[in-house]
Design a protein that fits this description.
With about 120 residues, the protein is α+β, with helices and mostly antiparallel strands. Helices cover about 35% and strands about 40% of the residues.
Amino acid sequence: MLRTTLMAGLVALSTPAVAHDLPTAIDCYQTATNAQDIDAYLACFTDDAVMIDVSREFVGQDAIRTWAEREVMPGGQNFNHRQILEGEDGYAKTEVNWATWVAHYHYWWNADGKITKMSPQYAD
């Protein structure tokens, strides 16, 4: 019984969050990343969005495009949200599976559901 419960929990953690569970901005990011579609990916962001990848900062869609084409799109099909850890209006901290790691992604978005700032970080 305990083994069955533990296995069910592990399966739930490895299953990506579905669209109705995620704010629009986060669903857009997950969908475009998994599709490895750079144009759909950039459509998730405002023109002047800021991406803070651990300690590097990329400002605007051109800089985010260059970074994403190099570091996100090649392994995009491996990206899945596990759960939302914190949330409020226009902000969420999520836990994600990315390749072989677990990471924390911080999202800020505007009233149109576009990402204004994002910060993927190693999990605590």
